[in-house]
Amino acid sequence: MSASRASSKNVSTSMNPVPVIERQATAVTGGLPVAGVEPFSTCDWPGRLVATVFVAGCPWRCGYCHNAGIQSRDAGTLDWDTVRRRLAPRAGFLDGVVFSGGEPTLAPQLPDWMDEMRALGFGIGLHTAGIYPDRLARVAKRADWIGLDVKAAPGGIDAVTRVPGSEARVWRALDIVQASGTPFECRTTLDPGCMNAEDLYRLADTLAARGIRQVALQLGRQADGLPLSDPARWPGAAVLDYWRERFVSFSWREA
């Protein structure tokens, strides 16, 4: 999914980089499910102070991914019991827990994790690229808010993910999220190597025609943190103004 930079020492949030991540000092092998926990984030759920749980594993290979270090399931270093013990004392202080990744719906335990966090008093947020629509359908109503990555305009999603068949999954996932009734945001990370201004106009029209109200565009970044484009030149003010006019809520994120 659309992600900020990660390394063997840290994992950043999906939409913006964050300074500190709690992880075990020594990596543990054996397919542990969680790659890291950000104890305090203000950017993973708009308007909320949350902790973010990064689930290890993602089958897609988006060129701008800044959590490439946790694409493998072997990137997990934390078992769920450890995560729960870390988060439980923050109940009542934090607004919620966001499950991110990687791709959190990859974990079959996700419904149970969400239920456990809700029982502790946390609101539940979810970041997903819609890779597993059937699994998303099982958890969409468990969430209080969903951030769904819509990788590109119709016809362009497979070029971003580098995995054939991705596109059908994304649009089906959007159907599921809309039907769930859970508040959500559609987010797109901009990669000039895979899309142009006309694609962004088409994507805005596509989402608006589906009744989407809350959207965000994020500037893609290289692995070294440098932006993939100069936003003043691309996508440019005209594209951003078009998106602002088309939606009730529009966010532009450069970081």
TrEMBL record:
Transmembrane segments: none
Source species, domain of life: Bacteria
Domain Radical SAM core per the UniProt entry, residue ranges: 45-255
Coiled coil feature spans: none
Alphabetized UniProt keyword annotations: Iron, Iron-sulfur, Metal-binding, S-adenosyl-L-methionine
GO MF annotations in UniProt: catalytic activity; iron-sulfur cluster binding; metal ion binding
Cofactor(s) recorded in Swiss-Prot or TrEMBL: [4Fe-4S] cluster
SUPFAM superfamilies, per database record: Radical SAM enzymes
PANTHER family in UniProt: GLYCYL-RADICAL ENZYME ACTIVATING ENZYME MJ1227-RELATED, RADICAL SAM DOMAIN PROTEIN
Name this polypeptide is given: Anaerobic ribonucleoside-triphosphate reductase activating protein
Lineage start: Bacteria, Pseudomonadati, Pseudomonadota, Betaproteobacteria, Neisseriales
